[in-house]
Each structure stands twice: as structure tokens, then as C-alpha cells.
From TrEMBL:
<protein>
    <recommendedName>
        <fullName>Putative E3 ubiquitin-protein ligase UBR7</fullName>
        <ecNumber>2.3.2.27</ecNumber>
    </recommendedName>
</protein>
<dbReference type="GO" id="GO:0061630">
    <property type="term" value="F:ubiquitin protein ligase activity"/>
</dbReference>
<keyword id="KW-1017">Isopeptide bond</keyword>
<dbReference type="InterPro" id="IPR040204">
    <property type="entry name" value="UBR7"/>
</dbReference>
<keyword id="KW-0808">Transferase</keyword>
<keyword id="KW-0479">Metal-binding</keyword>
<keyword id="KW-0863">Zinc-finger</keyword>
<dbReference type="InterPro" id="IPR013083">
    <property type="entry name" value="Znf_RING/FYVE/PHD"/>
</dbReference>
<feature type="compositionally biased region" description="Basic and acidic residues">
    <location>
        <begin position="212"/>
        <end position="224"/>
    </location>
</feature>
<dbReference type="Pfam" id="PF02207">
    <property type="entry name" value="zf-UBR"/>
</dbReference>
<dbReference type="InterPro" id="IPR047506">
    <property type="entry name" value="UBR7-like_UBR-box"/>
</dbReference>
<feature type="region of interest" description="Disordered">
    <location>
        <begin position="199"/>
        <end position="224"/>
    </location>
</feature>
<dbReference type="GO" id="GO:0008270">
    <property type="term" value="F:zinc ion binding"/>
</dbReference>
<dbReference type="GO" id="GO:0005737">
    <property type="term" value="C:cytoplasm"/>
</dbReference>
<keyword id="KW-0833">Ubl conjugation pathway</keyword>
<feature type="zinc finger region" description="UBR-type">
    <location>
        <begin position="33"/>
        <end position="105"/>
    </location>
</feature>
<keyword id="KW-0597">Phosphoprotein</keyword>
Amino acid sequence: MSEEQTVSLVDVLKEDEELEEEASAVLAGSDSDHCSYPQGYVKRQALYACNSCRPKGGEAAGVCLACSYKCHEGHDLFELYTKRNFRCDCGNRKFTELQCKLHPEKEEVNRLNKYSHNFFGVYCTCSRPYPDPEDQVEDEMIQCVVCEDWLHGRHLGRVVPDCVELQEMICELCMNKNPFLWTYAAHLSVPGAAVQVKEERDADQSNTNLPVKEEKGDEVIEPSCKRSREEVEPSCRLMELQTIGQKRVQSGAVFWPSGWRSKLCSCTTCKECLSEAGLSFLLDESDTVLAYENKGKTNEQRQQSHDPLMSVLDNLNHVQQLEIIHGYNDMKTELKDFLQRFAEEGKVVTPDDIRQFFEQQSRKRRRDDAGCFYPT
């Protein structure tokens, strides 16, 4: 008989703290009270797709964080994490029976928004929901920098490297749509082994829209990014890398280390090339999800620094401030020790236990107050 897996209260508290920190990183970078529509196509924001409001067979649509709270409370929402350059659709033509409560006056459609199958609740090349009730395999989902789709680690066509949370990933499909990226990959990407057999990928999906590579023996014809070498500026970093001729296997997703964007060529010709491909954001370090999350954490810390309790403390004298702070810290320490005992003994904390704890705190405070001598 196998032993039943147990989780201590300390583990639960630690996991809750990690989830709260992760949520703060994503949500604190977006406004939870005001619709983002007036800001236009926001550089990056948390987005949701409402399955309850979208008519059957209707168009893809996305709503901002505030609208997900105020206009779609209790609805069936697909969490899209973050997307770049998106304008809130809430209440526009795509929502036939819904008017936005926060910003009712909107254009019929946001023509510059980009949509994917994520807005219909499916992800990856396998087009499955997340979480997937039929998938028994434990696997992480990783977002592609370019298409912003989420892919299972086992469907990337390569081994997922360590410290993946500090790296950016471009999926194989996006690499092949922009072949000049393979030149950069040969010099800048995180080393790793490609997976020989790609699991669970339908044949009609694995080769869709992939350009054919022309090969002569071992020689791969490098993409010129729609220009001849004569047209390239003398200081072009991409041309220098092409001249070196270093090669790598052009298959599978590519992982990039921190700071790799700063090493891309920013000459006039390369900028035009990136603009034509819709990839100008690759030259922007602040476009990264990590930069957005750090901004969210900073905003959260700034909000916490304006806590109402701190405003009250500002109106007290120094002695009163110290008494309140010491009292708060003592209670927090005692509560942690109190819960720790339950965790170590494997006991369940009941409402009566919590009530008893605060009654003890109240009695202790009365004893302390009775023993104090206040000079007149």
C-alpha cells in the first residue's frame, strides 16, 4: 500500500505566497480599475477572452484586466497572460449583447489587434485547452516571443534548457517564417539538443506554412533578408555573422539568453527588414515579459508603501509608532509559531483554534496594559 502524500501548512503558505507574487508580477503592470481602451494599442497588458459573451462561431476578441473584473465577472474567461500592442475589445461590435461598463464609447473594431487560437481557449501546435483535463502528462507551457502562443515543452522540437524562466523562446514556425533569425541563433542562442522525434504532432500541422530550405550537400543557403550583400551597410552585424558562416541545426524552437536583443543589428537596413516582418519589437529590451513583470512588482511595492495603516502611523508620535509596530511584529511572529506547531504535528487548524489564539492575544494585551504606568 503506497503512502498517502501529505502537504504541510507551511508548504501551503509558501505556495500561496509564490502564487501571489506571480499574480502581482502579471496583474500589477495593468490597471484593474480603468479600461485600457483610451490608451490605444497598449505596449503590453494582461488580457482575457470571454467565452460567455462571444457568440457561437463569432470572432476572436480580447478584454483588458479591468473589464474582466467589471464587465465579465462570473463569466467563462480564458486567461491569455499578456499580449503586446492590443486595444481592449470589450463592448465593441464583436459583443452583440454586451456594453462596456467602463468605456461604452468604442469603435466597432480594433483593426490593428492580432488574434490567435489562444482567444478561443486553445494553445500550442496541438491546439488543446489549458489546463487540459485529458492530458495526464506533467509539462510546462512556454510562450513564444514572436507569435505569443503558448507551447508545451514536449512540442518544441528540442530539450527545454535550465533556467528557462530567464530566457526567451521563439518557436520553430516563427523561426522559419523569419529565416534570418537562424543566423543569429547560430551565434547567440542557448545551446541545446534538438528532439529527433516530435511527439503528438499531426502531420498536417507540423509542415504547415513552413518554407522549404534549399540545400546543397551540407551547405545551407543563408537567407539574405530580401537584400543583396551589396545593399548592406558596412557596419551590419547580421552580414558579419553571415560571413563567419557558423551553422546550427535549423529545427526546433530556439531559446535566447538574457540581453540577446541588444546584440541584434540595428543598422538602417536591418531596422527596415524587421519593420517589414513586424518584428521591430525585438530591438526593444522593455518589450520583454520579464521587463513587464518587473514593472508590475515595482508598482505593487509602491502601492504597498501607501498602505492605509502607514498613513495612520504618520499621524502618531514616534513612541506610539514604535509601540504599534512592535505589537504588530510580535503578533505576526506568534501567529507563525502557532501555525508552525500544527504543521509539525500534522494537525488541522480549526476555526476554534484561530479564535482561541486571538482570545489569548487579547488577554495578553489586557495584562500588558494593566501593568503599564503612564506618568501624568
